[in-house]
Amino acid sequence: MTKPKVAFYWCASCGGCEEAVVDLGEDLLAVAELVEIAFWPVALDFKRQDVEALEDGELAAAFINGAVRTSEQEEMARLLRRKSAAVVAFGSCAILGGVPGLANLYESQDILDTAYREAPSVQNDDGTLPAEESRVAGGTLTLPAFSASVRTLDQVIDVDYYLPGCPPPTGLITSAVTALVGGKLPEKGTVLAPDVALCSECPRAATKPDKLLVTAFRRPHQQLIDPDLCLLAQGLICLGPATRAGCAAACPGGNMPCTGCMGPTSGVVDYGAKALSAIASLLDADGEDEVTARVAEIADPVGTFYRYSLPASLLHRRVRPAARHEEEEVAP
Amino acid sequence: MNREIVIDPLTRLEGHGKIQIFLDPAGSVDRAYLQIPELRGFEKFAQGRRAEDMPQITSRICGVCPMAHHMAATKALDDLYQVEPPPAARKIRELLYSAFMVEDHALHFFFLGGPDFIVGPDAPRQKRNILGVVDAVGLDVGKEVIGVRKQLRDLVAAVAGKAIHPVFGLPGGVSRALDSGIQQQAAAAAARAVEFSQFALAAFRTAVLGNPGYVELITSEAYTHRTHYMGLVDGTNNVTFYDGTLRVVGPDGKELLTFPGRDYLGHVGEHVEPWTYMKFCFLKDVGWNGFADGAGSGIYSVAPLARLNAADGMATPRAQEAYEEFCTTLGPKPIHHTLANHWARIIELVYAAERMAELAADPQITDPQVRTLPTTPPREGVGVVEAPRGTLFHHYQTDERGLITAANMIVATQNNAARIALSVDKAARALIKNGHVDDALLNRVEMAFRAYDPCMGCSTHSLPGHMPLTVDVRDAGGTLLHEIRRD
């Protein structure tokens, strides 16, 4: 019997998801026994035409990490979609847009100006910016244009399953691969992680008060952090109540609050809104005005509640002036 | 000559490192360019974020060296809030940083750069990888690399929450103290790392130094540039990774300047070219004088070879011994041979392992006092570390609430960018004649930049983190003669 074929591919990512697969170590060898890895650019020398040569649907699963920003990434995502029975969005960037998705807060031109004209170390008197085409000694050099917005994988192609985390925890990776190649296919759209809040697996859970009330939120650098006590009970914004379990509460284990990389539990449309409301509900405040005032005291709500999920949010990106809308790629 | 030869017939894709080689009418190299085609814009979207989130946000610049960004950011926060971490916190940071340096350097030597030597620069492409290395030196070696790496990364995760994207850095310290159980875990990992480092050094001696052809290759003019060198040094001018003073030596090896990281803007400039998203660093003290080496050019180099050139020695005994052998064999210093980076990297691996063992054995490292709480309003902070691939600068300004108003990051590979550009051009000129190119020759051109262990993801804060590479060769009329891809 031939082994099922799988592919791993990266779009716009930091390389951490690939490292997470490498970190499977000896488990990776066990996975390699079960499947034939047909495409994995970081490690193996198969090329795009090897993927093109496959029958449609021949791959049992394609694991795609990273958000989508360039036309090449979009083409590869579409190609792998066509060739795969199942596509798994792998990691926070593919599922939610990830930390680099915060770039959707700004225009491309602002990003270029900051990097090449305004950075204090830059010496650039004539305001040179990278250009799509440059005449140089010897010939002409071209660069791809810097694209307008960061998109999640399912804003570009149809996605079957989601494997969350920044990066996904190794245990979840192993069980996802095993389940998929073993033909134990869950319902389409399933997130391959426990559908409960992170608090349920947090070692501090027993210290979380039944009725938790916070008078004011504090920031991690402003106080000593007790390594055993519920972080919310210490006045820190820990997103555990709004975040899916599956990481064994790694960040609280490092004595720091959860920042929400595992994304929401089922049925939540906008993770950041859910996280904000979960936190706001803990405020010991009377009436809407007081709650609003307290929430306004939270420094950087976008970076706090939408750290990993701005491109997947209802807003997707900063609303731009109407006159510039036609150049914009809009997410479906 | 007008024939189009495409070895790997792929459409040219975005998001790749590209080496463009232009030939003159006689088929010799007119000019070779390394282009980096992506940018993410971390400096821009850092604006508005909470300063204390920067160690976790900037680690997403690179999932391969997240610890380097996490630590540079954490040190920038120390400076921002003017807080000194307690001794135990400082030692915990350096312990984890040393563990990270060992596993990262090991990864490069055995998986990425080493195959060129252990398997051979002209070996078939399918063999120039970790599997070829395992064939050459045995399966046990492969297992040992995986095993050491796992032990070190488990240690990092035990202290820092996660190995990929750690969470333990805070202004004035670390988020948790080290208990004696973790100290024992660290001591065991360090002992294994020291042993492994000796093994790696021996493997290098046998595979590379034992082959006169390789020594000749390393010292050949095609891979040689006489530039300035920069690196962090300690109080006695030894190599250091976590903290120290920046020292720059000239192409003649004489000290040109020393400065604390906080003064980097007085000395480090970035030059912009329209044909790449990479910015090119230069020494302001000398100035940007184009792509040329020598004392009159502000181009400098960072990373293992540069660190050894900028320092006077290594702070631990086995590393010092290896350093002396290095200087005797290739010296006098400074050593200008780019490929000597591979040897320097192993010597640094030895130092990092020995330093880790020293720190793990330090009784003070389990002191529960690991935080100094900030009391000063934040304004501006600079943090500098030596990342595996060279000096890394993080610089933040904030408002009075500690929200970022401006951020500037100069990453390791960017410091090296101009010298890497020189290296690719020079190697191409030396190796390609009469329009003749083949895979082995182009691999030798690639070796010119692979020696730096460049991280293109880091250097443009770009996407994807690792840059696959395309090499295009064009004739004088601009026709594509030859294209090679390395994913």
Superfamily at the CATH H level of the domain at 5-99 and 148-181 in chain A? NADH:ubiquinone oxidoreductase-like, 20kDa subunit
Indicate the mean pLDDT of chain A: 88
Secondary structural class of chain B? alpha+beta
Strand order of the largest sheet of chain B: 2-1-14-15
Structure overview:
The complex is a heterodimer of chains A (332) and B (487). With 332 residues, chain A is of the alpha/beta class. Among the domains of chain A are: 5-99 and 148-181, NADH:ubiquinone oxidoreductase-like, 20kDa subunit (Rossmann fold); 198-299, no CATH class. Helices cover 27% and strands 11% of the residues of chain A. Chain A has helices at residues 16-22, 26-34, 48-52, 71-83, 92-96, 108-118, 170-181, 250-253, 271-280, 287-296, 301-305, and strands at residues 5-10, 36-39, 59-65, 84-90, 122-123, 133-136, 139-142, 161-163. Mean pLDDT of chain A is 88; it is low at 322-332. By secondary structure, chain B is an alpha+beta fold. Chain B has a four-stranded mixed sheet with strand order 2-1-14-15, covered by helices on one side. A four-stranded mixed sheet of chain B has the order 7-6-5-10. In chain B, helix 4 (87-112) runs antiparallel to helix 12 (341-360), helix 11 runs antiparallel to helix 12 (341-360) and helix 13 packs antiparallel against helix 14. Chains A and B meet through helix 1, helix 4, helix 6, strand 5 and strand 7 of A and strand 2, helix 1, helix 3, helix 7 and strand 8 of B. Strand 5 (122-123) of chain A pairs parallel with strand 8 of chain B.
Quick description:
The longest helix of chain A is centred in the N-terminal third of the chain and has 13 residues, at 71-83. Chain A has helices at 16-22, 26-34, 48-52, 71-83, 92-96, 108-118, 170-181, 250-253, 271-280, 287-296, 301-305; strands spanning 5-10, 36-39, 59-65, 84-90, 122-123, 133-136, 139-142, 161-163.
